[in-house]
Design a protein that fits this description.
Elements: E1 9-10, H1 12-29, E2 35-39, E3 45-56, E4 67-73, E5 87-95, E6 100-104, E7 110-111, H2 128-143, E8 148-154, H3 158-162, H4 167-170, E9 172-173, E10 184-185, H5 190-206, E11 211-215, H6 218-228, E12 236-237, H7 242-251, E13 256-262, H8 263-266, H9 284-294, H10 299-305, H11 311-315, H12 320-342, E14 347-354, E15 358-362, H13 366-381
Parallel strand pairs: 6-8, 11-12, 11-13, 13-14
Antiparallel strand pairs: 1-10, 2-3, 3-4, 4-5, 5-8, 7-9, 14-15
Helix pairs in contact: 1-2, 5-7, 9-10, 9-12
């Protein structure tokens, strides 16, 4: 029986970008729009419906509006996401001067602790802010407008929804984060995704591969491409299901598997956590602090790591030499738990990296498993 193809969605960041583009278009034309077309980083174009459009004029005789507000509805596709169906608003208005400003309105969280992408006091709008302001700049240029613009992004129900997320623990208060580097929400329906991973393993095994490379997500895929020249199609994307992927690979006769991932994900494996989704477990800083103690760092230094917001933030608190000692302990624990889960019939290894520090650690068999996996793929390609 054929499996239902999972539906993709789009991020809150894409919603904010699209709503801003539409609002800017209406601000400079005075004509109401029902839909807007917006481009994603990969070049794909989406056409999205607009909701709750409000056009305001400073004076009745004005030909063009002074401000426009509209919303785009978040669609998470087949991804289980609490933001599915929420309206993401953008209000744009002309201002005095020449500055283009992006603000967070109702339901948008504010950064209150260091270690996040935006400075303290800023709205929790990640790098998609560049795309939002780019839409503003392009609209101004097309209209020949050189004055100031203020953009306010809001999610009216954001503060309530944010209580169900990890935002408060991360130091984001008062609402949701506006996220999305790729613009798309990849479907993560649990059983369907696990079935997809199983099917991909079956295909690889049928093609003659006996050694696999897996990565939890896009960070790992990008790292493998940039560091080793391994294309995305050669890697099995296992999402948060590292343990189940090991089980399925072992059941189907896999001889070796290499896990490549960001420290923020794989640090959990060092604590025996094989489903890395935050709703199952976190303990990132606790595991890192434990590794620091085993590496010989003082209790005071190790306790400091518990206060970090991110793993990169924690690693920045210690010296290069201490970082190497800590990661040696982390890699040993990762190897221990991978071996325990995989059993004796399948070799395992891991490569852990950081976007800040690059490769942080490799287990003993990592390079050999990578070489074998690449050789299997090359052999399969010759058939």
């Amino acid at each position: 029986m054929a499996q239902k193809k999972l539906a993709w969605g789009y991020t809150t960041g894409t919603c904010a970008q699209a709503a801003t583009k539409a609002a800017m278009q209406m601000l400079f034309t005075g004509e109401q729009a029902d839909h807007i077309q917006v481009g994603l980083p990969n070049g794909e174009m989406l056409t999205l419906e607009l909701y709750d459009i409000k056009i305001a004029y400073a004076a009745q005789e004005d030909r063009l509006p002074s401000s426009v507000s509209c919303a785009v509805k978040k669609d998470s596709g087949d991804d289980p996401d609490i933001t599915d169906g929420v309206l993401v608003y953008s209000k744009v208005q002309r201002t005095k001067g020449r500055e283009r400003v992006l603000r967070g309105g109702q339901g948008i969280g504010q950064v209150t602790k260091p270690g996040l992408e935006q400075p303290i006091g800023s709205p929790a709008i990640n790098q998609v802010r560049k795309m939002i302001l780019q839409e503003v700049g392009e609209a101004c240029e097309e209209a020949g407008y050189s004055g100031g613009i203020e953009v306010e992004i809001s999610i009216p129900d954001g503060e309530r929804l944010a209580r169900k997320t990890f935002n408060p623990r991360l130091g984001i208060t008062g609402g949701l984060s506006i996220l999305g580097t790729s613009g798309r929400v990849e479907p993560m329906s649990e059983q369907a995704l696990i079935d997809t991973i199983r099917l991909e393993i079956q295909v690889r095994m049928a093609g003659g591969s006996r050694h696999l490379v897996i990565a939890p997500g896009n960070y790992g895929l990008t790292f493998l491409r940039d560091a080793y020249g391994i294309e995305e199609k050669a890697v099995i994307k296992c999402s948060n299901y590292i343990g189940q992927t090991l089980d399925m690979a072992s059941e189907q006769g896999c001889k070796g598997i290499l896990v490549a991932g960001h420290i923020g994900k794989l640090i959990k494996v060092a604590g025996g956590i094989m489903n890395t989704h935050s709703r199952w477990a976190d303990c990132r800083m606790e595991i890192l602090a434990s590794a620091a103690l085993r590496a010989g760092l003082s209790g005071k230094q190790s306790r400091r790591l518990l206060e970090a917001m991110t793993t990169d933030d924690a690693l920045a608190m210690i010296s290069d030499g201490e970082r190497r000692m800590v990661m040696e302990q982390v890699m040993g624990q990762i190897q221990r738990y991978l071996e325990y889960r995989a059993g004796e019939e399948m070799e395992t290894g891991a490569v852990v990296f950081s976007n800040v520090y690059g490769i942080l650690g490799k287990t003993d068999l990592a390079d050999d498993l990578l070489r074998k996996a690449v050789a299997d793929l090359e052999q399969d390609g010759k058939k």
